[in-house]
Amino acid sequence: MYLLITTFTYVFEAEYGFSTESAGLTFLGLGIGNIVGIVIIGPVVDKIFICYVKKNNGVQKPEFRLPVMVFSSFSIPIGLFWYGWSAHDHVHFVVPIIGTSFIGFGMISVMV
Q: Are 33 and 103 in contact (CB under 8 A)?
């Protein structure tokens, strides 16, 4: 995550010609992905956790939260691939920012 964040300034200033102030706005994609992840993953994890607790006769285990993470974690490599390839090919600047939103979604789902 930290290596990705350090590339934002170079990619958007050197490759796309953004000013320093405008390059800071590129972090919005990551933030939007985090917000979407919290809104979607939070309630889904709770519903699945409750379902597993009922199946296990009321015994709660932390592992019951893992199934959602397994599926949502695939958005991290998809986002990294999207970001890297689109920045390398010099497509419109919004495309790598959309890729970072997938990374943000995946990272927040893994952390939750």
A: yes
Domain coordinates in residue numbering, the chain: 2-111
The tokens describing 71, both together, are 């599926």
Distances (CA, A) of 22 to 25, 59, 108: 5, 50, 25
Q: In angstroms, how far is CA 16 from the centroid of its own chain? A: 22
> What does 12-77 look like in DSSP terms, one character per residue?
IIIIT---HHHHHGGGHHHHHHHHHHHHHHHHHHHHHHHHHHHHTTT---GGGGHHHHHHHTTHHH
CA-based radius of gyration for the chain: 17
The per-residue pLDDT for 26 is: 92
Tokens read off for 17 = 């010609």
| pLDDT tens-place string over residues 56-108 | 999 999 899 898 888 888 999 999 999 999 988 889 999 999 999 999 999 99
**Number of CB atoms found within 10 A of residue 86's CB:** 19
| Exposed/middle/buried for residue 16 (C-beta within 10 Å: 0-12, 13-18, 19+) | middle
